[in-house]
From TrEMBL:
Comp. bias regions, Basic and acidic residues: 71-87
Region feature (Disordered): 71-99
Entry-linked Pfam families: DUF6898
Tree of life domain: Bacteria
Domain DUF6898, chain residue ranges per copy: 19-74
Protein's name according to its UniProt entry: Conserved protein
Length: 99
């Protein structure tokens, strides 16, 4: 994918198949740059901070990989959560404190 320097975002590879990913590149103080990757379908956003001397394509690749990781982690945690119909065997199920 050629770099898009317009700030409007561009399609990218996120999780498995082809998904539209918007990339934002923001200069930060101290010689750093912040890159945000946003999944167009879910609105999930992640960001990384890197050296302003690093190639923009490399920073974008890292941001997209982080987005892919977070999406896969969230999908796995949804799959692993017990349904509300089944009794919980304890642990952190998001419920209250029983006394």
């Amino acid at each position: 994918m050629p770099p898009d320097r317009s700030g409007k975002g561009r399609p990218g590879e996120a999780s498995g198949g082809s998904r539209e990913v918007y990339l934002e590149v923001h200069p930060a103080s101290g010689g750093f740059v912040k890159v945000c990757a946003i999944d167009a379908e879910t609105g999930l956003e992640v960001s990384i901070v890197g050296s302003s001397k690093a190639p923009q394509a490399e920073l974008e690749r890292v941001a997209i990989n982080k987005l892919r990781y977070v999406m896969e982690r969230d999908a796995k945690s949804k799959k692993d959560k017990p349904s509300k119909d089944k009794p919980s065997s304890g642990g952190d199920d998001g419920g209250g404190i029983l006394i």
